[in-house]
Write a structure and sequence with these properties.
- The protein has about 110 residues and is mainly alpha-helical.
- The chain has one domain: Methane Monooxygenase Hydroxylase, Chain G, domain 1, CATH 1.20.58.
- It contains 3 helices and no strands.
- About 10% of the residues are buried.
Length: about 110
């Protein structure tokens, strides 16, 4: 029963990690954060579960490898997303500065 329970927890963890990646691809940040929160609570359950040998089994090692690869992909996607957000913010700030300077010049013109 414990082996099934531990395996079930890790499979759920893998599923949530896959969902995190999927929602990050869609740039649905709120759902990404919600799933990340669910995964954190699942991680606490995994840490409290007794060690039943799943981590040493072939399927356990495959599960860990899949999670590891997904997490590396998520880190890369997050870095790209953050850089894109920073760049968009900088562009937005640059245009805001231009708009105010042009408005004043138009108002000062005398025709």
């Amino acid at each position: 029963m414990n082996k099934h329970n531990s395996e079930h927890l890790w499979r759920n963890y893998l599923f949530l990690t896959q969902e995190m990646s999927k929602f990050l691809d869609r740039q649905e940040v709120e759902l990404f954060l919600e799933i990340m929160s669910q995964r954190e609570s699942l991680q606490m359950q995994i840490e409290q579960a007794p060690n039943d040998g799943f981590s040493q089994s072939t399927s356990g090692k495959q599960c860990y490898k899949a999670i590891f690869l997904l997490e590396q992909s998520i880190k890369t996607k997050l870095a790209c997303f953050i850089n894109l957000s920073k760049r968009q913010n900088q562009i937005s700030n640059a245009y805001e500065g231009l708009a105010s300077s042009f408005v004043g010049k138009r108002m000062d013109r005398q025709s």
